[in-house]
Design a protein that fits this description.
The structure is a single chain. The chain is an all-alpha fold and 69 residues long. The protein has one domain (11-66). The chain contains 4 helices and no strands. The protein has helices spanning 13-19, 24-29, 45-51, 56-67. The longest helix has 12 residues, at 56-67. The protein starts with 12 loop residues before the first helix and ends with a helix.
Amino acid sequence: MKLGEKIKGADSITEVFKLYPKVMEMFVERGMHCVGCEVQDFETIEGSCSHHNIDLDKFLEEINDLASK
């Protein structure tokens, strides 16, 4: 994953946070306690959405919108 690329479900949470730190707040607001979690290095966006019963497509749309600003 590179800066400027769209965030995808298969992307690791750690990589997303490194490239787009402003999206961390979106995770916290949705009760996704990925920020600072020891498994964030191994978890994908898709896996976290599934675990927290969050619609992946909607989340990706929102997170990509925020990341592009």
